[in-house]
């Protein structure tokens, strides 16, 4: 929620109260000036007039006082009606609870750090959110319309807003986020999101969806770390299932599931060593799946392969095994 929305929330609550207080102040000042009442008498006279309780005047009113009292009563009737209408509509229609929940949600988002921002909650966005939820990764969903209520998982952090606007991305913690996933249906909108995200957070990892081949290069130039074309990946996945269905299902399971018993992680090497010297399998039980060097991957490296500082090791193992491997690497 933006700062203006918070102001609007309190504005809707306190504007009727402010109007009533203004009416009371006008009555007190009017009686003190016109009838020369002291402050207590003016307050008392204003209260019984505005409340329409019908008590006697403090002192007999002059003609000017009668006219002022008449105007005060007429204003009070209109203002009191407006006061009741605004408050009734605000609380009975559920607007108060909606605004309160939005503010509470924004406060939770403001405490997030190292989270993932998912822009768009269509088929791709929902699937990304599902995987993040299953793996316990904190994330915020940003969608321009109300989210469906029949979700198969609990959505802890979300905001309704336009992801192409700078203030919207900043309001969901772009500066503190570790990654952003843009799954908007329009390539131009994804391009704008990527440009904005890269401008405000040069270190954030950005994964963007693309529908057209011509958009891939543009998104990469704009700052996208990876560009995904769901239609191409879906077709290739279906064809691969025909050739090696069990292998594909196993790889899909390995890439999307992470828990205490199984996970695939990237570890950065801080020194040079041969894999045989490290002997991760015997010491930790982890399996080395590959090594990344200068954006190139070496899969299933041999024991005598030398790893240099700054390179990435792709390891597979349980949470306990991976923790041991981190100490060694």
SSE blueprint and pairings:
Layout: H1 3-34, H2 39-50, H3 63-92, H4 95-110, E1 116-119, H5 123-134, E2 139-143, E3 158-160, H6 166-171, E4 179-182, H7 187-200, E5 205-209, H8 213-222, E6 226-228, H9 230-243, H10 245-256, E7 263-268, E8 273-274, H11 275-278, H12 280-283, E9 287-293, E10 296-299, E11 306-307, E12 312-317, H13 319-328
Parallel strand pairs: 1-2, 1-4, 2-3, 4-5, 5-6
Antiparallel strand pairs: 7-12, 8-11, 9-10, 9-12
Helix pairs in contact: 1-2, 1-3, 7-8, 9-10
Quick tags:
3 domains; Helix Hairpins; alpha/beta; 16% strand; Rossmann fold; single chain; 53% helix; Alpha-Beta Plaits; elongated; 329 residues
Describe the structure.
The chain folds into 3 domains: 3-97, Helix Hairpins (Orthogonal Bundle); 113-234, NAD(P)-binding Rossmann-like Domain (Rossmann fold, 3-Layer(aba) Sandwich), CATH 3.40.50; 260-328, Regulator of K+ conductance, C-terminal domain (Alpha-Beta Plaits, 2-Layer Sandwich), CATH 3.30.70. Helices cover 53% and strands 16% of the residues. The chain has 13 helices and 12 strands. It has helices spanning 3-34, 39-50, 63-92, 95-110, 123-134, 166-171, 187-200, 213-222, 230-243, 245-256, 275-278, 280-283, 319-328, and strands at residues 116-119, 139-143, 158-160, 179-182, 205-209, 226-228, 263-268, 273-274, 287-293, 296-299, 306-307, 312-317. The strands form 3 sheets. The chain has a 6-stranded parallel sheet with strand order 3-2-1-4-5-6, sandwiched between helices. A 4-stranded antiparallel sheet has the order 7-12-9-10. It has a two-stranded antiparallel ribbon with strand order 8-11. Helix 5 links the parallel strand 1 and strand 2 (139-143). It starts with a helix and ends with a helix.
């Amino acid at each position: 929620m933006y700062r203006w929305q918070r102001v609007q929330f309190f504005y809707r609550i306190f504007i009727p109260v402010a109007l009533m207080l203004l009416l009371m102040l006008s009555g007190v000042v009017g009686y003190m000036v016109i009838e020369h009442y002291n402050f207590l008498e003016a307050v008392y006279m204003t209260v019984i007039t505005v409340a329409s309780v019908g008590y006697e005047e403090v002192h007999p009113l002059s003609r000017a006082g009668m006219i002022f009292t008449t105007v005060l009563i007429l204003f009070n009737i209109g203002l009191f009606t407006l006061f009741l209408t605004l408050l009734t509509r605000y609380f009975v229609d559920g607007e108060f609870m909606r605004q309160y929940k939005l503010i509470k949600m924004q406060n939770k988002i403001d405490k997030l750090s190292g989270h993932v921002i998912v822009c768009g909650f269509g088929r791709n966005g929902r699937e990304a959110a599902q995987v993040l939820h299953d793996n316990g990764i904190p994330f915020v969903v940003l969608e321009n319309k109300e989210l469906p209520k029949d979700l198969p998982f609990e959505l802890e952090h979300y905001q309704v807003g336009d992801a192409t606007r700078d203030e919207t991305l900043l309001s969901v913690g772009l500066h503190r986020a570790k990654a952003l996933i843009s799954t908007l249906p329009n390539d131009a909108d994804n391009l704008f999101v990527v440009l904005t995200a890269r401008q405000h957070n040069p270190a954030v990892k950005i994964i963007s969806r693309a529908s057209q081949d011509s958009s891939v290069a543009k998104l990469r130039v704009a700052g996208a770390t990876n560009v995904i074309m769901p239609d191409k990946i879906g077709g290739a996945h279906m064809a691969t299932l025909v050739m090696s269905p069990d292998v594909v299902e196993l790889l899909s399971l390995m890439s999307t599931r992470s828990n205490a018993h199984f996970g695939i992680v990237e570890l950065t090497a801080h020194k040079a060593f041969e894999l045989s010297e490290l002997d991760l399998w015997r010491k930790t039980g982890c399996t080395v799946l590959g090594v990344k060097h200068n954006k190139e991957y070496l899969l299933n490296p041999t024991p005598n392969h030398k790893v240099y500082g700054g390179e990435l090791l792709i390891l597979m193992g349980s949470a306990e095994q991976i923790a041991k491997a981190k100490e060694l690497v």
